Every structure is written in C-alpha cells, then in structure tokens.
Fold this sequence. Notes:
Low-confidence stretches: none
Strand order of the largest sheet: 1-2-3-4-7-8-9-12
Number of helices: 14
Strand content: 5-15%
Radius of gyration: 20 Å
Amino acid sequence: MEKTWRWxxxxxxxxxxxxxxxxxxxxxxxxxxxxxxxxxxxxxIRDLREYIESYGMRWSVVESLPVVESIKYAGPDRxxxxxxxxxxxxxxxxxxxxxxxxxxxxxxxxxxxxxxxxNPDGTSNLYFSHAQFAYFDIHILKREGAENDYSExxxxxxxxxxxxMTPEDNHNLVDTIIVKTQGFVNGNIxxxxxxxxxxxxxxxxxxxxxxxxxxxxxxxxxxxxxxPTCEEYGMNMCVHPDDPPFPILGLPRIVTCDEDxxxxxxxxxxxxxxxxxxxxxxxxxxHNDITALAKKYAARTWFVHxxxxxxxxxxxxxxxxxxxxxxDLVEVAKIFEEIKPGLPMRVDHGPNMxxxxxxxxxxxxxxxGRMFALGQVSGILHTIxxxx
Length: 388
C-alpha cells in the first residue's frame, strides 16, 4: 500500500516538510479554497500538484471533490452541477490526478459528540454518544418528530442530560456536531457562521420527502451521468461509507453496510464506480464484519482508510487504537495487499496525544496521533511484505 496522509493545503499547520520526514509517500487533499459547486481550474490543480511534488511526494487522491446538496436531493440545477463536476474531473485527469474520494451523505458529512473524549492512558479520541446526539436533535435542533427516532433507553438518558446541560454545554455540542467537524472540509457550515443551528434547519428542509429509495436513485443518476467522463479520462470514483453508518436526523443513509455497497456498485456496474474502504466508518456499526467486507469488495476498492472503532453495548462508539477495536487492520491489510496491492492508504482519526490538542489541528486530524498510527500501520505492512 502507498502510505498517504490527508493534508489541508498550504495553510495546514502540518507542513509537507514534516510529512516527508515521517515517511509519507502520497498526499490526499483538495482545493479547499474553491466554493462548492464551482469548477476546479486546471491551473490551480497544477499549482498544488507541483507544490506537492516539490517535496518528493505525489497528489495521490482527491478528498474530496464535493457533491453539492442539489445533486443529492435532485434540485433544479442538478444537471448543471453535474456538468461542472465532469469538467473538474477532466481537469484533474489532465494534471495526472485520477482518484476521487467523495461522499453522498445528506447535509452532515461526519458526526461526533465529543472531540476530546479521555482515554485511560491520558490521550483522547473522537466519540459518539447516542444520548448526546439525541439531546442535540430533540432539544437544540428541535426537529419535529425527533423523539420517534430513538429508543426508550436513549430518551431516558436525554431526560437526565436535560437536568445538567448548561448553555455553554449546548454551545459546545453545536460546535462539535455541526461546526468543528464540518467547517474545514468545504462543509455546509463555516466556523464564523453566526447562526449555525438556523442554517442547519434550513438544510434539513431541502430533504423533506427524500427517503432511502429517492436518495439511492439520485446517487445512481449522478454516477450514471459521470461514468462516461470517468471512462474517457481514467477517473476512479470511490465513495466514502456513511459516518456513522446508520440514519441520523431523519435523513437516509445509503452507504452503511454490505447490502448498501452491493446496491450502488451494481446500480452503476462500472469499474470506475468504486469504494473507499473506510475501516473506521464501517466498524462503527456493530452490524458490519469488516474482514468479510474487505474480502468481498477489495476488487472494487480504490482507496483505503485505516482506522478502527470500538462499539459499546449501548451503540456508542469511540475511535480505537489502530491495533485494536472491531476492525482487524492486520487482516484487512493482508487482504488488500493480496487482491489489489499498491492502493493508496491513509491512517485516519489518530488520538490526541503529547499536546496535539493544543496545536489547533483540525478535528480528528492530529499530527503526533496520526504519526503514531502511521508507525503502527507501517509495521503491519512491513511484516506482511516480509512474510511474502
């Protein structure tokens, strides 16, 4: 596997010089300064590619070329947006970048309720609490009918939270769920938005009447429309599984499990329509057998995210060690090295450790924590190579 790293451009506090020193071979990045829905100009792609290459690395994967909401909910400008997307694909190809990691999650890219959940060893991790998320949904967002989406046990926990949550706690929960995890990745809500909850409510309204079948059809429409461009220019699309891998906020999720993956790969059965195999997102669902999924879908995978989650009895989950959790990364690495060697791989969501939390890094994208994880995964890969 090619050892890659998600990097957020020239303003990232983690520099390419730092990454070169720790053995990174390829960069996973995007043109984060281009607003969603606009064509990526070839000259800007070239400038970033040449900058990366000046440090002895290559631009391995685009993560991501955002699929705008109107494509997902089939808005009136959907076809126009798809044409712009195709133009960006063409420009990327002409500059030698051929793999696109994207997602088809409505409104919310990824969700956590705590960015600094403490571990016994003094590090901290991202964490998802069903009760905290339900409290946000019911009492902060005030989504109509939200109570119907949660179990009696979760609702009982929400009632307890109601008695202890302060205005500052509410603010921090909003900041974590819809600002900090979204704003740095061309998300719908930015750090400086004054009324994020109101913006978020308006975004949810766009999906009124959109159920799982409708969202699936919109994904099929998008993929079918761009596949001729992908074939002509050698572009590989690899969708990221939904994170977390279950419905939230009344929104459908359509890349959560074996049945979902099988559906979208067959709905547009083209080798350029593939999967980002994110061990972490998939392992956050107790319904997923990560090793079995890796074996089944390795041939249609274009990119691998190496991380693992621990799921608790109540369904809450936390990022685990890259040598622990539900995803057996040793077995996953063996599978991909055997079936599809050479895929770009990046470690993901490392712990906050040794002061990472004070450096202003993007949520989930620490330096020392990810460097530690990269060391662990590099050891796995070296051992597999040695055994061969």
